[in-house]
Amino acid sequence: MRRKAGLILLALAVFFTALSPLLRWYVFPRLAKVPANQYQTMVLQAKNATLLDYSTMTPRTVPEVTVVQTLKGNVEAARTVRRTTGRDVVVWDGLSYAQGPDGQMVSRIPERYIFDAHSQQPVHAAGEMVDQDPVRRDGIEFKWPFLTQKRDYEYFDAQARVTAPIHYKGTRTFRGVTVYYFEQTIPWTKVPFPKVMPVKGITPEGVAKTGTTRWYTTVRRFWVEPLTGAPVSGEEIHKEELRGGALLGGRARVTAFAGDVKMREDYIRSTVALVKHNRLPILLLTSYLPWGFLSLGLCLLALSLYLEARGRRPAGPAPAEPAEPEPVTA
Length: 330
Prior knowledge:
It contains 4 helices and 12 strands, in the order αββαβββββββαβββα. The protein is α+β, with helices and mostly antiparallel strands. The protein is elongated and about 140 Å long. The mean pLDDT is 91.
């Protein structure tokens, strides 16, 4: 009976020990994915920002500029790309809408971002664009991969339409969450005018004819929770200038926008709470269950070996039977 129990325990030990790396290296990469229908909104603000008054073509300080950024999963487009590429993809239709304190539009930039649902690496397919201009992303955008590493990544800048390194700057604690801090600097770069201008009757083509150009620089900062790859906070020290041309009346450059754009406090709180909630399934598949199953397998193995050893222990000498008394003769 001990030998049978030992064999059962040994089989269970092998099962749980084999299941440990299987969960981590096979199940997790296939289950961890960004939902195709995900929808999210983020609000950022720049307090005491500099904004160009197009009626006088002079910059002025305003109390705040608000940027509303939405990302909407396009399920139908994802199915189309999946059929043509054979990959499990997510298609995000994004919109970055900035407005001044009076509610008037400052800029409106639509975007389509196509990426692998599991690795978050960009997938090149028809429809990938920024402000209706076709682009080819060679780096991540908006979200880091699951299990983000302590290293530099390639990050796509939608304004300049370029990919540049975003540097890992250290591990920090943000609102009780361990995060990796990343920073990217885009130097002054000539960028196209938005398709939709903030002043009616003015078009990008009309501005281009005056010889005026648009330039941009930013310092981009993200605090990323490494398990989910989700930024819990973001910030951009953002500057835009108009340079040269007849539109500026002989001036070399004019500030179009300058401000420290930060995520609004209520959105930081909700993002941190959501990330804390989403950490648990990842911890289960990458840490708790693999290590738990490995420990259980080792304990079962030790118990099976113990029972096997007891089953093979030699039996002690048989007790001597009492001798029958001999008859007494007279």
